[in-house]
Amino acid sequence: MELRINTTATEQEAQAIAKALASHFGDEVELYAETGDELLASASPEPGTGAGGSETGTSSEGTAAGNGGTDAAADDTLGPTEREETLQAEIDDILEGGPEKYRDRLSEQGKLFVRDRLDLWFGEDGLSFEDGKFANFDAWHPSGQDSDPDSDDRLPADGLITGAAEFEGRDLHFMANDFTVKAGSMAEKGVEKFLRMQQRALKTGRPVLYLMDSSGGRIDQQTGFFANREGIGKYYYNHSMLSGRVPQICVLYGPCIAGAAYTPMFADFTIMVRDVSAMAIASPRMVEMVTGEEIDLQDLGGPDVHARHSGSADLIAEDEEHARELVAKLIGYLPDNSDEDPPRTDGTAPKLSPEGIDAVVPDQPNRGYDMFDVIDRIVDEGSTLELRPEYGPEIITSFARIDGRPIGIVANQPNHRAGAIFPDAAEKAAEFIWTCDAYDIPLLYLCDTPGFMAGSQVEKDGILEQGKKMIYATSSATVPKQSVVVRKAYGAGIYAMSGPAYDPESVLGLPSGEIAIMGPEAAINAVYANKLAEIDDPEERKQKEQELREEYREDINVHRMASEVVIDEIVPPSSLREELEARFEFYETVEKDLPDKKHGTIL
User: Fold this and answer.
1) Fewer C-beta within 10 Å: the chain N or C terminus?
2) CATH number of the domain that 148 lies in?
3) Where is the CoA carboxyltransferase N-terminal domain (predicted)?
4) Are residues 98 and 151 in contact, defined by beta-carbon separation less than 8 angstroms?
């Protein structure tokens, strides 16, 4: 084999190159000058060496590098270079986060350092990769200089971590604020990472997890990210595009103020950690400056505010570990995206025997009871996850499973204000129905309501506005729907609870069921008030009222409804679970068409 090298190599270097090449190729090698016919060195292979007769070129002539070294690819003793060690040191520096003084304060606040939080969520091997570690690196760690670990100007990862991870066997995208870097505030490079993560989620069709702990936009660095086309405002555009496409789950570990507060609002599900998290359109200091009101952050936008009053928090976690547990359970009901089916599990028996259902439902329509006493006799044991339990508690919105199949439950709660539908309850139900429909989760309605609440205050609170949204969501949902008239179904309550007119796959009645414009007491007062007033004897009037009440209830009871084929079937309560299991199974592939239009105008 004849090869040519440049003439800068010394005689010793040329001989070493010839010997190495002969050993590598298993052939005799002659090295000539790059120009001319001068033989610089030659060598023959030692017995037992060589590359198996394979040559790298198409000709026996070629050009070698002449760098005076041996074949590095064949040398297994090489290790990291100084260049790589420098890079690793820089990465280690970034992983430390912001100044130590801020990391030390986290434990006093009951919070983990963000990278310890990621370890809690994903474990040592669950983090697939991170994007943008070096964001804004040159701003605080100039090349060739050491950064000051205690400087407030440290901006590791620009205070926001994004990447991909495996969580509970599911691949997902994530972002997490680093509160040790400018209080988790957002600036140009961090915003760009956030946007890229969202846009990639649109491509992959995988869920997004937001671990929020942010004081909002970095005001002193707002140029380049606030009003730009690809700035912080694009967050909410991307949230809107992702909405209903992939599940978006947000966990709040600290303050989320101003722009940061909209991410939990746009997410499908928001979990707040008690005592440490809050979200508000402005900080307490800003509120005082604008309105004169003095208020602390927890009273302004803490978990209790958003769980009970605004309805913006779906779940409250007691601590960081509990937050992870809640999300692990929540994601188990959800598909990766709107094209996939919700994940099935092995079914289990209910917590309580279905044979007790009829015994827990009182015959008297005005007597309260806990609807969970019915639910626990229908769904798989341990499968319920109620969302927004303190907001509009007259309606239960809960995920559960029947024989391993995820379902969404919308149920009236007679234990709270007789199960009457108030504006906040209607709003909660509408949003839950809409979310279930987006992710193809079948719906079970358990109806026991006197209808929508009446009165001047609920009118001011928007009972008509919120009521129409619930009815609209029920009307537009294309997932399989089963409606059960557990007891009373009065007024427009039967409409909101997916009654016969709302295209459910089935309307089932229990023997305690009644369907009517209004309850017996109100009906008798409306129709017979004058006639009853003409009866002077109190005992006679009382007896007449009882007769009218019984006649009215016979006219509206579930047997009359079944006889007139208003409902599909009266089901023995002890077999209700089996009936629902069979019907959800049968209708799982049902397809429903909506009118050809861009979208409705109600929600």
Assistant:
1) C
2) 3.90.226.10
3) 80-346
4) no
Residue range 372-401, pLDDT digits in tens: 999 999 999 999 999 999 999 999 999 999
Residue 602 domain flag:
no
Q: What is the distance of C-alpha 77 from the center of its chain?
A: 48
Domain span at 401: 354-513+557-586
Under 8 Å between Cβ of 489 and 514? yes
Q: Is residue 396 domain-shared with residue 483, that is, in the same domain?
A: yes
Q: How far apart are CA 384 and CA 347, in angstroms?
A: 13
Global pTM? 0.84
Calculate the alpha carbon distances from 369 to 151, 388, 415, 489 in Å.
60, 20, 5, 16
Question: Torsion-angle region of residue 50: left (phi > 0), alpha (psi -120 to 50) or beta?
Answer: left
| Same domain assignment for residues 57 and 198 | no
Tell me whether strands 481-490 and 443-449 are parallel, antiparallel or unpaired: parallel
Q: What are phi and psi of 204, to 5 degrees?
A: -80, -25
263 and 364 in one domain? Answer: no
Give the contacts of 52 (CB within 8 A, at least 6 positions apart).
26
- Residues 463, 421, single domain; the answer is yes
Q: How many domains does the chain have?
A: 4
pLDDT tens-digit map of 251-280? 999 888 887 888 999 999 999 999 999 999
Query: Given the structure tokens 């086309």, which residue do they identify?
Result: 229
